[in-house]
């Protein structure tokens, strides 16, 4: 028994302008669909993404992800039916059906719809209409309508899985949304209070409004990391994952990668999840000589599990030698691969300490790093 969600992303979205479906257009640093998927996945364990059959790029991109993929149909209802079909055999009890073009959906709204399904076979968010309503023609008002009892329908719309599968199987088509399909099958649909910020991106100007909402809600965290390792016998050092031949080595319990340790601690710091020593105790012999990318990978995965993504890293190595400049590009690439972050968002730079202090006396290398993490 599980809860699932279907995100319908097979539409072409031409009213929103541009030559690209609106779900793939950028919004506050990522694409519309990425926001929507992240918000639904944070609340629901099993998510189906319905994609246009000819959207080869999206199929390739999401093919290896945790999402279940289903092909879109000629109509929205057919797309939803394909999504429901993709959930067959997963023992789904409750299912949410959500428009990909609503990327500002809140955790509270998702939780409210799911909670309403404890006592109702169907539930969906609706906003009471507060504006006066007119009819019009040729830029003239031709009449007025009573707004009492009217609601603007939103998604996610939630249903008992078997009930909505049966409702779609018998519906003749042409429904505006899944609530209409459910009601046609006799299901009682509870209204959950909607959220004015849960807008459906439809027109070009909706992008700016959605961006304002998302940026205001973002949880941004910074962390810093600092590490030092002492020089000792050896013929190379490992810095930010790159092996550099050198007349001395760095001493430490692991591979003594001072740069990667600082970056790792910066991520743990942003998450307020301690430091490397806490997660990988030096007293534990299994970490002796370990490649430090194990630590960094763990920190990055922990960030993902806590709902954060790393948005940039800045690492400074402090040493008189070896020269860092010729290796900085390789170091950025290595960190970027391990964290899963574009290389343009990873900085590695170096400074000497003007021959002052322990780094100036060439007794060791120090590193400081900053990480920025964002929870959408
Ligand atoms: Mg260290």
Structural topology:
Blueprint lengths: L1 E8 L16 E2 L2 E2 H10 L4 E6 L4 H7 L5 E4 L4 H11 L5 E8 L7 H10 L5 E7 L4 E5 L2 E6 L5 E3 L3 E4 H10 L7 H7 L4 E5 L12 H12 L1 E14 L3 E4 L2 E4 L3 E2 L7 H14 L4 H4 L13 H13 L3 E10 L9 H12 L6 E6 L5 H4 L3 E12 L1
Helix pairs in contact: 3-5, 5-6, 8-10
The chain binds magnesium ion (MG).
The site of magnesium ion has 5 residues, from strand 13 and helix 8.
General description of the model:
The structure is a single chain. With 376 residues, the protein is of the alpha/beta class. 30% of the residues lie in helices and 30% in strands. Strands 1, 4, 5, 6, 7, 10, 11 and 12 form an eight-stranded mixed β-sheet that branches. A five-stranded mixed β-sheet has the order 16-13-19-17-18. Strands 2-3 form a two-stranded antiparallel ribbon. Helix 3 (76-86) packs across helix 5, helix 5 crosses helix 6 (178-184) and helix 8 runs parallel beside helix 10 (293-305). The longest helix has 14 residues, at 258-271. The chain binds magnesium ion.
């Amino acid at each position: 028994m599980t809860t699932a969600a279907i995100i319908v992303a097979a539409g072409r979205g031409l009213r929103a302008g541009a030559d690209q479906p609106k779900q793939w257009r950028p919004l506050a640093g990522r694409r519309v669909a990425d926001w929507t998927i992240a918000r639904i996945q944070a609340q629901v364990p099993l998510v189906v993404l319905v994609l246009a059959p000819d959207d080869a790029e999206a199929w390739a991109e999401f093919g290896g992800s945790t999402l279940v993929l289903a092909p879109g149909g000629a109509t929205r209802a057919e797309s939803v039916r394909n999504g429901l079909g993709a959930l067959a055999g997963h023992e789904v009890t409750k299912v949410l059906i959500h428009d990909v073009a609503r990327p500002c959906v809140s955790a509270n709204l998702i939780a409210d719809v799911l909670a309403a399904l404890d006592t109702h076979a169907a539930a969906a968010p609706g906003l009471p209409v507060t504006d006066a309503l007119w009819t019009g023609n040729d830029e003239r008002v031709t009449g007025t309508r009573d707004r009492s009892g009217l609601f603007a329908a939103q998604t996610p719309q939630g249903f008992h899985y078997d009930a909505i599968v049966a409702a779609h199987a018998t519906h003749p088509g042409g429904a505006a949304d899944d609530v209409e399909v459910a009601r046609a099958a006799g299901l009682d649909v509870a209204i959950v209070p909607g959220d004015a910020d849960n807008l459906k991106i439809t027109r070009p100007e909706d992008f700016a409004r959605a961006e304002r909402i998302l940026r205001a809600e973002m949880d941004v965290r910074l962390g810093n990391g600092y590490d030092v390792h002492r020089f000792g016998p050896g013929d190379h050092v490992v810095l930010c994952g790159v092996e550099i031949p050198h007349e001395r080595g760095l001493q430490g319990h692991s591979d003594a990668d001072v740069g990667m340790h600082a970056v790792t601690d910066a991520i743990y710091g942003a998450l307020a999840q301690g430091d490397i020593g806490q997660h990988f105790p030096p007293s534990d012999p299994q970490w002796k000589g370990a490649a430090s990318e194990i630590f960094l990978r763990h920190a990055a995965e922990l960030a993902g599990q806590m709902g954060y993504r790393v948005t940039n890293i800045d690492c400074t190595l402090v040493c008189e030698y070896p020269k860092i400049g010729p290796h900085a590009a390789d170091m950025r690439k290595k960190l970027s691969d391990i964290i899963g972050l574009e290389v343009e968002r990873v900085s590695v730079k170096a400074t000497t300490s003007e021959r002052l202090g322990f780094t100036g006396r060439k007794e060791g290398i120090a590193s400081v790093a900053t990480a920025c993490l964002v929870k959408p």
